[in-house]
Every structure is written in C-alpha cells, then in structure tokens.
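From the thread on structure requests for the teaching lab: each student submitted one protein with a one-line request. Submission from student K.M.:

"Model Octanoyltransferase from Rhodothalassium salexigens DSM 2132, tokens only."
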Amino acid sequence: MASGCHRKTPASAPGDARGDRSGSAADSNSSPVSSPVPGRASDGNSAGQHRAGPDTPHPNAAEWPAWEVAEGLVDYAQALERMERRVAEIRAGTAPELIWLVEHPPLYTAGTRAKPADLLTPDRFPVYQTGRGGEYTYHGPGQRVVYVMIDLTRRGRDVRRFVAGLEAWIIAALARFNVTAEVRDGRVGVWVPRPAMGREDKIAAIGVRVRRWVSYHGLAINVDPDLAHFSGIVPCGLSAFGVTSLADLGYPVTLTDMDVALHETLPTLLTYTEKS
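Reply posted by the TA:
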C-alpha cells in the first residue's frame, strides 16, 4: 500500500504500507527524549546535538511522542537505519513514539515508483533507494525534515486520516507565519497558490511508510533550501508544478522558528490520529 505523491491512500490495511517520503547510528544522531519539549534531551554525547526550543509543554504533553531536534546535518543512511530500529522498538513496546526533526546534506531519494527518466542529473547528488512508495524527492540544507514514528494501533488504524493529519499539521504551522497553504486532490503534499504568477508551487512534501501499524518517514518543509537543487529531478513525477520555500515567498523564517511552530501545532496531527 502506498501513500505519497498521489493523494490516494487506503483507509486501512494490514502489514507494511509505503508512502513517498523521504544511523551506523546506535541512536547517536539524537538521544532519546523523555519530554515532548523541543531541545530537551537526556544524556546525548554524539554529533547530533539538540537545538533548544520552547520550554512550556502542552497541557496534554504526556500523550505526545518524544520530540527530538538534531543539530547539524544528518547522514541519510544513518537516519534510515535509526528509523528502522526505532520502528521495531516501538512495535515491541521498548521505546516511545518519536518525532525526529533533522536536516540532511543534499541528496535525492527514490521511492518504489521512481522512473529513471525523472532523475535528470544522476551524478549531481547521492541517490538513495528507499523502501517508501512514491517517486523522487530532494532533501538538503534549509529544509526541515520531520520523521514521524507513531503507533497507529494505539492512535487509530487509518492511514488516510494519518496522512491528512500530516497535511493539516503543516498547514497549521505555516499559518503561524501568515502563509496560506492548501492541499489538492490527487497530489499529496502542501501547496501555495501564486495567482500573480498563474501557478501554484509545492512547499512541503509528505510520504510515509507504515510497518505493522507503526509509521515512519514523514514530511519535509522547504524553509530556505537551494531551490535550484530540485532541478535535478522531477519531484514526485509532477513536471507541471513548481517548488517554493518560505524564503522564496519572502518570509525570513529560520529552522528554529519552524520547529517552534511545528511543536505548538502538533495537537493538530494528534487530533487526527485519535481513535474514534
């Protein structure tokens, strides 16, 4: 089952579900966090230090996943290894759910539906084959990638609603900066209408994989990446649409600003994932 570039996901399905997103890390890029407050972590002593965030937890913070913000660029292969391990631990009940915010060096990832013709410059950046569904996407500095590892058995076995929750969460966070963003039928992700230019551009991508009802991968929001780097691929196989960022739209937002907005609006996602 896939959920990614195309906005169509079965409401529920057993086993392993793939979507479009996109450690040897013994959980070394970020240490486990017992508090849901960004930047507050237990004894982390590795390269991935934590960026400080707000110090006031939400009233329902006890129900939140752990929250980690990695400092510096995180190697993609190590991130994937860590996600795989954490998913197994969540499934086994030996680790809490986790929302992990990272920034990667420039790279492309290919989903299971990626077409060779959509990789326009194969030698430009490293290309990683992922287990997710979907097609090609780009990650790089200035882009906030959020890996969402939560137990949908505990929160509600509805992948379609989970993806809708991710979209709503992004829209709520962007609204903190007075950015009006929208979703489109048939296209997963979040879009910004630009009527003066006669088009709409993608500002955030979403793609998830669900293994035994534990999610991983997640979303990517363009804060201030080099948009020229997207020209090496056809993002999500959608050649008719452009890509934008908060900086491109004229908003001087930092990654830390975005982290705070995401943390403050996290209840938007958690409301979508509540069991009915």
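TA comment: Residues 36 and 61 are 6 Å apart (CA to CA). Helices lie at 76-92, 152-155, 159-175, 255-264, 266-272.
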